Inverse folding.
């Protein structure tokens, strides 16, 4: 009984320290790899508490190892967008100008009911009200609603960290030459772009800093 | 990035602790094996009272070492070896050398299992 209390205390402290060390990203985003990390840590922790026969060190080691690996993994993903796409996947457009892309839904294995539910959760009650709906890599649905009255249309991502959103480019009626023109006006090459957004009328371009320091999660 | 530094520190500490605990486990098991071997030699030489005393000391020492070992290896394996060691002194009699040989061999095998449970890669 005493060992169970001690183990629970130790695991509780270590699990909280591990989650804290991995940062808020671990709590907020839950990308596939982060979900796996969280599951693994919670399982290892509960096994250690449930089974006093297991050596304590054998339970703490995987928790700390997973924590360190997760930090290295997210750092690598930050520095290498290609790796990040491989790890997290890409967002997939499912609604464009009010039209549902059924092929994309089939590919994602999302039923119309799932889509309707996600839309309702986003306070949207008809796909017709949506300019751009996208399933994010963490599985959530993000929507850009059609503007009402004099509202400006929502900004759509065109280029984010070397990833070109070609369907957005085409949906806004632009092509590669428009993109090249934007980049040449800003005097930077596409790998130097952190975020490029446009709504067809306005464009927002945020270049990367010369020496990226990475995000403090 | 501070978090990467922490992660490197964490990994370094883990490696150091794994290395240190590996040495500690091997050391503890090696000591018990040595003591067990000495006790068995005494019995083979016919010094049964000394052998029984040596077996008892081995069992006590191993129980003490178990307090450290239980941090690194399964408690059931430790219980098994402690139970085996606790019975050995009662076999250290002139009329059952075969039983003593069998039980001592069992204890050596259990010590080996104990070491493998920590060192085995898979």
């Amino acid at each position: 009984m005493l060992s169970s209390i001690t183990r629970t205390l130790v695991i509780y402290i270590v699990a909280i320290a591990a989650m804290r060390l991995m940062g808020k990203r671990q709590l907020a985003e839950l990308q596939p790899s982060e979900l796996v990390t969280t599951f693994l840590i919670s399982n290892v922790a509960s096994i250690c508490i449930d089974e006093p026969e297991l050596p304590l060190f054998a339970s703490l080691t995987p928790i700390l190892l997973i924590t360190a690996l997760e930090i290295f993994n997210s750092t690598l993903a930050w520095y290498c967008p290609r790796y990040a796409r491989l790890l997290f996947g890409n967002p997939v457009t499912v609604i464009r100008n009010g039209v549902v892309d059924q092929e994309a839904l089939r590919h994602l294995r999302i039923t119309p009911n799932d889509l309707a539910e996600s839309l309702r959760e986003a306070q949207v009650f008809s796909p017709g009200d949506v300019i751009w709906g996208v399933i994010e890599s963490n599985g959530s649905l993000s929507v850009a609603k059609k503007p009402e009255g004099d509202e400006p249309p929502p900004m759509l991502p065109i280029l984010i960290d070397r990833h070109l959103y070609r369907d957005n480019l085409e949906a806004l009626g632009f092509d590669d030459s428009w993109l090249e023109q934007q980049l040449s006006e800003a005097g930077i090459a596409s790998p130097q772009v952190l975020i490029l957004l446009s709504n067809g009328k306005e464009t927002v371009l945020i270049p990367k800093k010369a020496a990226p320091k990475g995000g403090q999660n | 990035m501070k978090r990467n530094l922490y992660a490197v520190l964490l990994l370094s500490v883990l490696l150091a602790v794994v290395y240190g605990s590996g040495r500690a486990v091997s050391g503890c098991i090696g000591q018990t094996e040595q003591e067990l071997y000495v006790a068995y030699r005494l019995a083979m030489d016919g010094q049964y009272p000394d052998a029984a005393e040596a077996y008892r000391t081995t069992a006590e020492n191993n129980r003490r070492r178990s307090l450290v070992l239980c941090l690194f290896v399964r408690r059931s394996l430790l219980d098994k070896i402690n139970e085996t060691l606790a019975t050995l002194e009662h076999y250290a009699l002139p009329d059952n050398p075969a039983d003593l040989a069998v039980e001592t061999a069992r204890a050596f095998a259990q010590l080996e299992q104990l070491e493998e449970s920590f060192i085995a890669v898979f």
Remarks:
- Chain A has a mean pLDDT of 84.
- DSSP finds nine helices and eight strands in chain A.
- The longest helix of chain A spans residues 56-79.
